[in-house]
Structure formats: C-alpha cells, structure tokens
Design a protein that fits this description.
about 375 residues; Rossmann fold; four-stranded parallel beta sheet; amino-acid transport; ABC-type branched-chain amino acid transport systems, periplasmic component; Leu-bd; signal; Leu_Ile_Val-bd
C-alpha cells in the first residue's frame, strides 16, 4: 500500500510537471546573417523579445511559448532545410520567417506540403498570389508599393519616369508589378535599367536615364545596398527630378548607407512605425507602434525599423489566432489566421479572408519623404 501511494504521488507529481512544462513551439527561419541581414537581424531580435514578453504574461492560452530560431543566411536552400527540420524534428505548430522572397518561397513549399501555417516576412506578391492555404504574409506587397508611388506621382502631374531595378527576387518582382499597373495612372516609362546584387556603381545606368527627354522622376525597385548606391550616384550626377525608392529600404539604415545629403528628398511608401513620434494621437496604430518602438529600442539599444515590425505583426497574428482557436493544432491555427479581423499592427490594420492572405489595403501605407535625415509624412 505504501508503494502504491508513493507511486500515485509520483504519477501525480509527474502529471503536474507535464502541465507546468506544456509549451507551444513556434519555428522561425530568418536571414540574421548574409546579404539580407539588415532584414533578418531585427526580425530575429523582435521574435525573441515578443516570445519573452508573452511568456512573462503567462504565455498563450496558459501555455509557454518556445521559439525555435534558425539563421538561413539569406540562402533559399538553407531555408528549405530549416523549414523541414522545424516541422519534422522540432515539431513546431507554425513558422514565421523568410526575410527575402527566395527564402519565403522555399519555406512556403515545405509548409504547404506538411500543412503547417507559415507567415512570411517578405514583400513579393507571388508569395500569396495565387492564394495557398497555409501561406500568409505581413509586409505590403510590391504591387501595392507601385500603386502607392504612382498615386503620388499622378497627384504631382508626373507622366514620364525612368526605372532602375535590382535583379534580385524582390527587385525583379516589383519591376514586373510596376510595369503591370503603371498604365492605369497615365505614366510612361521612358528609360528602364537594371543592376545586379553585387554591383557597386550604377552611374552608367543613371546616366542613360538622365539623358532621356521629358524625364520627370525615377523609381528604384530594390532592397539592400543597391538602392543606397543608386541614391549616392544620383546625387553625384546631379539628377534633379524626384527619386522614389521602394518599401524595401524603409529603415534608418538606408539613410545612413546613402548618406544624409544624398538621401534628402527621397520618397518611399512606408509604415507608421517609421514616423511613430509624429503620428496624430487619433491614429489607431499609434499605441501599437509606439509600444513596439519603445520596447525594441530599450531591449536592443538600436533604432526600430520596418522589418522588425513585420516580425512583430506576424507573431501577434499567430498569438491572436491560437488564442481565438483555443488550440495549437496547425489546422486550427490556419483557420483562425484566415479569420483575423481588425488586428492593429505596425504595418496596418489586418483583416484576412480566404481570398486575401495579407489583409492590408493601400491605406496601410504612408507616403514618406526624407528631410534633414529623418522620415516625414507627406500625406
């Protein structure tokens, strides 16, 4: 009898231990190193911070969250390997990541095959168009960026532009999307140049663009160091028409790389996060972006940026969905993500549908201009 009692006590204790150790495993693969580290590093730091904050508040539905985080170095093949490992070995219930279009596409293929929810942090529209059941994303699409830019150009009476685009996955995708929608705005492309990811001087391409008759503005779809080089060369060539960049450079790091003087006057479609301090109090995003900015900067001692904001929103979408589903089963999470409604994030107010796995419209974009080395609102 004594042994039975002891055994029962042990079993009860083990039972309590199991309950106490219950956890929700969330996977992530981001580009903490490599050519897209300026994207992946703040994403990784944001996810670690948010998991820590969530667990300090009791976790999700009373369960602690465990983040299994890998650095794919911006390599699509590594991203595919890590996605497989996250699902098969680590047994995660969802994946956040894909700092770039290429790594996102690799992860999405694995996630779809295994029916595990995946929230991408990359911009290309091809990630969610056509809609795939288990794939979602948080950044505005490149097509939306084109539309926001062309809206601004049209308002200023600009009808003839040059384009200089990166040949990386993001640059090529945005280039194609811009060409697809530009006719709607009555704007003509009079020069169309490209540059490679490793190019260190875009002076020849910009010289060709500068010489085009009637040129009124230039648009640079791209991300990474390329747009900063374009901006510096633009200044060196004394091109005076407005320069528009993509949301792929929406961070203070771009201003630092390009140089304050060269970046002056550059316009981009960006997020509320970049102008958190000057948002009107009536803006529903202000409390969210201000709280994230304060927490991130206190934690990392570095300026907040758009890219970490994408990870912030992805984690909140996932947390909100698991809470509403009352379950951490992948299928239940997927269904709940698709029903996300009115969730305020750093990129906008998210409302998903079976036909829309982004949940943002053009109103989520702010048109920004760099003045005196700072981001300012122009709409």
């Amino acid at each position: 009898m004594k042994m039975t009692t002891s055994l029962l006590a042990t079993m009860v204790a083990l039972g309590f231990a199991t309950i106490a150790q219950a956890e929700i495993k969330i996977g992530a693969s981001v580009s903490s190193t490599g050519p897209a580290s300026f994207l992946g590093d703040p994403e990784a730091k944001t996810l670690e911070m948010m998991v820590e904050e969530a667990n300090a508040k009791g976790g999700i539905n009373g369960e602690q969250v465990k983040l299994v985080l890998y650095d794919d170095g911006s390599d699509p093949n590594k991203a595919r390997t890590f996605a497989t490992r996250l699902i098969e070995d680590d047994e995660v219930v969802a994946i956040i990541g894909g700092s770039t279009t290429g790594t996102s596409q690799s992860i999405a293929a694995v996630a779809e095959d295994n029916e595990v929810p995946f929230i991408s942090l990359a911009g290309a529209i091809e990630i969610i168009k056509p809609v795939r059941p288990y794939t979602f994303k948080t950044p505005h699409t490149d097509r939306m960026a084109c539309e926001k830019i062309f809206e601004d150009m049209k308002a200023q009476g600009i009808t003839k532009i040059g384009m200089i685009s990166g040949t990386d996955g993001f640059g090529a995708s945005m280039h194609a999307q811009c060409k697809d929608v530009i006719g709607t705005y009555g704007i003509e492309i009079v020069a169309d140049e490209t540059y490679g990811p490793q190019d260190a001087d875009m002076t020849p391409q910009l010289t060709n663009i500068k010489g085009k008759a009637g040129l009124q503005a230039v648009l640079n779809p791209g991300f990474g160091q390329g747009p900063a080089i374009v901006t510096r060369n633009y200044k060196q060539l004394a091109i005076t028409v407005p320069l528009y960049q993509s949301h792929g450079v929406a961070s203070d790091g771009f201003i630092t790389l390009a140089g304050k003087e060269a970046a002056e006057g550059v316009r981009i479609p960006g997020t509320a996060l970049l102008v958190a301090d000057i948002l009107p109090d009536s803006d529903p995003q202000k409390p969210v972006v201000t709280a994230y900015k304060t927490a991130f900067e206190a934690k990392t001692k570095t300026p907040v940026g758009t890219f970490g904001g994408y990870a912030h929103d992805a984690f909140n979408i996932l947390s909100d969905s698991i809470t509403r589903a009352g379950s951490a089963e992948p299928k239940a999470i997927r269904d709940a993500i698709e029903k996300t409604s009115g969730l305020v994030g750093t990129t906008g107010i998210v409302t998903m549908t079976p036909e829309d796995h982004l949940g943002l419209d053009l109103s989520a974009f702010k048109m920004l201009e760099i003045k005196d080395g700072k981001w300012t609102l122009i709409d």
